[in-house]
Each structure stands twice: as C-alpha cells, then as structure tokens.
Design a protein that fits this description.
The structure holds 2 protein chains of 2 kinds.
Chain A (H helix, E strand, L loop, with lengths): L6 H37 L19 H9 L3 H29 L3 H19 L2
Helix pairs in contact in A: 1-3, 2-3, 3-4
Chain B lengths: L3 H22 L4 H11 L4 H26 L4 H24 L2 H21 L12 H5 L4 E4 L5 E4 L4 H18 L4 H11 L4 H26 L4 H21 L5 H25 L3
Antiparallel strand pairs in B: 1-2
The chains are: A mainly alpha, B mainly alpha.
C-alpha cells in the first residue's frame, strides 16, 4: 500500500478515488429518489406486476435512449438515469486510477487498470 | 399487494432490512435481496438480479469511500484482481441467458449456503506471512495496515495465481447471480493469498462495485433493470447498509451472525426446492 517511493501519490489516489465514489453515489441516489417520487405520484395506484419477465422497453436500455427519456422528464427515465450514473461511478473510479498510474509512470498498473476500463466500457456500450 | 405505492414501500422496507443485516453480518445485501424479491414479493428472478446488482454497486461504492480513509484496503491488490473479476462478470452475464432459470436458482441456493456457513464460522485468523513471494513483490502487492496497538503491521501477499483464479470464479458468480460474492472474494484473498482478514474484507468491498458494474451494463441492455423495482431496492439497501456501518462498531454481532446464518441456510434450501419445481 504505502511503499516509501509511492507513498504520497498512493495516499492521494486513495482520497481522490474516495471522493469520486462518494459524489457518484450521492448524486445517483438523489436523482433516483427524485425520479421515484415523481414515479409514485404518477403511477402509485397502478397494479404492480413483476411476476412475468418482459424486459424493459428499448428507451430504458441504452445510454443514449435513457438520456433522451430523462430529458423529457419521464419519471422512469429519470430513475434509470440515476441508476446509469451509479453504474458509471466505479467506471469513473477506474478511469481516475488509469490517469494516476500514468502520472506516476507506473506502467504495469496503468496497463492493468486500462484493461479493466476497456472491459467496463465494452459492457456499457455493447448491446 | 394492491397498488404500486404500497408495493414500493414494502420493497423499500424489506430492502432496508436486507441492507442492515447484510452489513452487520458481512453477508452483503445482494445475497439477501434476491431471495427476498423472488420468494416474498414473487418477482421474476431476472428482475430481482437486475435490481440487486444496482444495489450492490451502491453499497460497495458508499462503503469503499469510508474504508479508504481508514487505510485498510490494498488498492493494488484490488486493481490487479479486478482484471479477473470483471472478465468473470462478463462470462457470468452471458451464461445467465444460456442457463435455465431453475438451474440459476439452484446455484444461487448453493452459494447462499456457502455464504451462511462462512459467515457463521469466520473467526480464525490466517497467520501473517514472513516470506515475500517473487510475483507479489514484482507487482508490489505487499502492504501494511494500521494495527490496533503497534502502528503499521506489514504483511506479504502469496499465491497470486490461485487468488486470481478464485477471483474469476467470484466474478462469474457475481455476474450470473447479481450478487457481490464477497464471501468468495474474501476466501481468495484471506485463505489463498494470506492477506489479513480486515484487509481482505475491505479490499473485497472495494472491488465489488467494479465487478458488479461489468455485468450491470449488459443487464441494462438486456432490459433486466426495471427502474420501478430497482428504485426502492437501491435506496432501501443503501440506507440499511449505511445505518449498519454506523452501528457495527458497537453492535454485538456474533449471536446475530449465527442466528441469521441459520435463517439464510433455510432460505437457500427453499430456493433450491422452488427453483427445482420451476416455481421461481
């Protein structure tokens, strides 16, 4: 964790990562809560049905479509935007780590984190 | 259950309890939330897995921010092993569409049984390793953590390839079942790699968010993540886990852990049976 040569920057990386995670979760939870209140006001009396799996409509499945849906003020789109932000939070954490390891000239860990970032990116963008 | 409002409030309350118990017992919210949604609320297991994954990311990220401050997590070990868990998570998410639902329920039950057993027993401490392992040294994985009395306690990391392999399994289970699979992650670090227990648990938590994000993207595209269901689950589990983390230092968890493990084991058996009958 803290070898003398990397002690300072490693500590700083930890605090930056901690902040990214905290801000991401708080922001995501706030958006989900706002969307949730709106959703319940609009659909609170509807009968819930999750027994049968149908899958979500296409406007709630891809990054691009979720942005469009949330921008229109749709409550389900807004919740989905918050959830998307939550999923992206650990991705941002990895992206920050890549940058930090490159700045440290720690090429092994820069490559390791870059590989993880590529996997996460693939998962988010492949359909 | 009549009305979406009532349903949502019940799910939120149940998720809050799951998050609280998950953090107090160290089981995590995911392994509790999926049986809760499927067995109690009769939600299709695919929606349950989607909602659970999202809540797992929330609690892991929220807790990691706090743990990083304490200085226990070994982020190098975490970053390296995330290569294995994210590849595993992709495989798990792909397997999820090819494995029939009853089989998924059975695998879930078995993992639940293991987690319950693991939570009930885990008190044994792996002795600190004195020798350095060449591969671990090359990757500069050895670390130190703040010990209770004597400043920084140094430790050496061993058997990196074995830990890496087990992490792949943990990632696959996470992607397939929508759980954090903290129990398997801790097993890989604490048993296989001789990493001190507190370092293993906090580093495992650190990795869970990234692991879950790797499969959550795929589940999102597949339409498994329903906003109406994931909303109360995510907010409830997060709230419960935050409260749990706050009261954990003062709480007497030993008895709770054993009692809860027995309950979880019973739930596991029910999942296996219901899954086998095709009732999930």
């Amino acid at each position: 964790m803290t070898t003398p040569r990397h002690g300072w920057s490693e500590k700083r990386l930890e605090s930056v990562i901690g902040m990214v995670l905290r801000v991401g979760v708080i922001l995501a939870a706030t958006i989900v809560l706002l969307g949730g209140v709106l959703y319940l006001v609009q659909y609170g009396a509807v009968e819930p049905d999750y027994r049968l799996f149908r899958g979500e409509a296409s406007d709630l499945r891809s990054m691009h479509a979720i942005f469009g849906d949330a921008a229109l003020g749709h409550s389900r789109g807004l919740i989905q935007l918050g959830l998307l932000l939550l999923i992206v939070t650990p991705v941002a954490r990895v992206a920050f780590s890549v940058a930090a390891y490159i700045a440290e000239r720690d090429w092994i860990y820069a490559a390791i984190t870059l590989f993880v970032l590529a996997i996460l990116w693939y998962s988010l963008t492949s359909a | 259950m009549n009305g979406l409002l009532e349903f949502t409030l019940w799910v939120a309350a149940g998720s809050f309890l799951a998050g609280l118990l998950g953090s107090l017992t160290g089981l995590g919210g995911g392994v509790i939330i999926v049986p809760l949604l499927t067995l109690v609320f009769h939600v299709d297991i695919r929606y349950a897995i989607g909602a659970s994954l999202v809540s797992v990311i929330a609690t892991s990220s929220g807790a990691a921010a706090a743990y990083l401050k304490e200085g226990f997590s070994n982020i190098r070990v975490g970053m390296l092993l995330e290569v294995a868990t994210t590849i595993g998570a992709l495989c798990g998410a792909y397997l999820a569409t090819r494995i029939p639902t009853p089989a998924i329920a059975t695998i879930f039950g078995l993992v639940l049984l293991y987690s319950a057993w693991d939570s009930a027993k885990h008190d044994t401490q792996v002795p600190i390793q004195q020798r350095s392992d060449p591969l671990a040294a090359r990757l500069r994985l050895d670390g130190a953590y703040p010990a209770r009395d004597a400043g920084l306690q140094q430790y050496h990391v061993r058997r990196v390839p074995l830990g890496f392999g087990l992490m792949y399994v943990a990632g696959t289970l996470s992607g397939l079942l929508g759980i954090g699979s903290g129990a398997v992650k801790v097993l890989a670090m604490d048993r296989a790699m001789s990493i001190p227990f507190k370092v293993s648990t906090t580093t495992s938590n650190f990795m869970i968010g990234v692991t879950a994000a790797a499969s959550a993207g795929i589940y999102l595209h597949r339409g498994y993540i329903d906003p109406g269901l994931a909303m109360p689950v995510m907010l409830g589990v997060l709230g419960g886990a935050l409260l749990g983390a706050r009261i954990l230092p003062e709480a007497e968890v030993r008895t709770l852990r054993v009692l809860f493990s027995v309950a979880i084991a019973a739930v596991a058996v029910e999942m296996i049976f219901k899954g086998a009958q095709g009732n999930l």
